[in-house]
Structure prediction request, 742 residues.
Amino acid sequence: MTGVPSLPADLDPLEKDLLSAVVALEREHSPRGAPGPLPDGLDLEALFDDQCSARHLDHVARRLKERGFGYYTISSAGHESNAVVASVLRCGDPALLHYRSGGFYAARARACGRSGWERDVLLGMLAAREEPMAGGRHKVFGHPDMAVIPQTSTIASHLPRAMGTAFAVDRAARLGRDTPWGPRAVAVCSFGDASFNHSTTQGALNAALLTSHRGLPMPLLFLCEDNGIGISVPTPPDWIETAVADRPGLTYARAEGHDPVGVHTVARDLVERIRDTRRPGFLHLRTVRFLGHAGSDVEAAYRSAADIRADRERDPILGTARAMVTHGLATPAELVERYLRGRRHITELAESLLDAPQMNSAVEVMAPLAGPEPMAVAQQVEQAAPTSDRTSLFGTPPEDQGPLTLAETLNRTLADTLAADPGALVFGEDVGLKGGVYGVTRKLQRMFGASRVFDTILDEQSILGLALGTAVCGLLPIPEIQYLAYLHNAIDQIRGEAATLAFFSQRRYLNPMVVRIASYGYQKGFGGHFHNDNGLAPLLDIPGVVIASPGRPADAAAMLRTCVAAARAEGTVSLFLEPIALYHTRDLLTPGDGRWLAPYRPPAAWAADHVPIGRARVARPGRDLVIMTWANGLYMSLRVAERLAAEGIDCRVLDLRWLAPLPVEQIRAHAEGTGRVLIVDETRRSGGVGEGVVTALVEGGYRGPAVLVAGEDSFVPLGEAAATVLVSEARIEAAVRSLVAR
Prediction:
């Protein structure tokens, strides 16, 4: 055909097939000026450029990898029809995208007027420190100027957050709070057909539908990009439609990715419906996958040549080219030239960035994980509601209610937090009318209403996803996980989502939250493994997360206020572990002594009572040895210390209180000060807190005697047998005597 430019010698086979097919459109379609109106808002020329840009980046990624420069080769090739979906959304609609979203990202950048996005993506591939989102830590699609929240999208792990974000859009408006998004925003989350089968996807879909079924707004677009294969495992062609098309309360729509006009019409109508009704919708976008799953994947090992060739007929870029020729917007030769011009631009841009510096120190890599700035937190702990508001809420202010238990103290602190911060939310299983299994949230819903204190479904992934979504929308979630063991089935929402957002966005996106968790063993007459769990190992190695664990009412209020202040001031994610067995404890040594109760401090004293993160407390002075412990271990150790004092054995008891970060300097100082250390760790010996304490001592140069008394490496059984695997006062006392005798 005349006018077709010569093709570069280094074209990938996929590129050769695409351009050959574009050239063949000369014979397939009538010449320029063919009739046929296009839908309003569909700009095929812009779409073609965006789709080609995404494709060029995928090819460049492979070439960079071959030359030893690039580090990321999971491509968007074949999925570029998601650019059409982006074009029917608003720039301010929050988007949580999976890794094949290059086309969507290009179209969103165009809509938001952000130039230079291709450079950003290339810098991510090169792990360059100047990449504006993750700073070279990972290749992500994300930018606050485009309302794209960066996700690592491990098997749809971002979908619970997307559900929470959609919930928060209208809930924030109802509470009179601003969000980063525009009014009546629609949240969108994209994922693949293989990820659709993961329990995380099913949980998020179920939570969204149930929320909507209850009459609550849930403006969420589920975008399932179905390329028919998960790495090498085929998805039945009819499975996605069979599984969701008839779900009550879910508007289902299907579109073929190689038909841009059809995708635009279907997606536009669905998004408009979601925006108007505030109910969820599901767009089943049929796509293809080119270039395998990732750079090392060889499709020919598990797919036939015929299947691969058939997919190339459904190339979304070819579909857009066909529509442009049909509607007289370009000739095939012009489209080939347009493709090659964009290819040259991306290639030259990539070459210009090869020397972009990468991070070269652990300090630089870990910068987004730095703990909260102490002064910023300290300045926030004084935040309290006006005295008149507190009086009308409480009647008798908490500080005038006499000594309180741990549960009562936490209850009053939550109430004060809700009163002081209109964006604070308390939610979880049974926290509403019931007031929590242990009464910690009693009367809070009555005081603050069901918009701010409410029950959730029985699904920890959804509870944490709700927290993640409301947090990124500017609210302050304080979710409750009913038992520590229940957290483990949803741990990736903390590990892979909450903890990583600051890391992969250089703190440009944060999800401040305080996750309250009823924890540990020692419940009487009730329990077994799921209600007496003492395993903390999955939590202790999550970078950037604060773990607080008060044992005494005297500490609980100040520590909870610290965690709330850190969330407000620094976007901190805190896990607040509450010892169930001490919720209603009143006495320390003898019935009626009331020594485990404490008065609630008035707001005027909050600044003076501030407990900095990572600061231990001497719960009992002593000279002969130091017992380092917390929570139930604190209670037992104090009882043992009081008894042994009568024999002249003077035990110092150091309440660690903060399990991450540990109070390392105090641990070392008190060890050197007494010369004998007993670590009482109610978690398990392997992977427990005690291991971190011992490491701190050894690395600090401590050479004196140290003994660890810890729970056994066992699950906790029912009944009296639980005492055989948990730390006991008898074991603590025996260890003290042994140390003193040395």
Summary: The chain has a mean pLDDT of 94. The longest strand covers residues 677-684. The chain is about 40% helix and 15% strand. The CA atoms of residues 109 and 115 lie 7 Å apart.
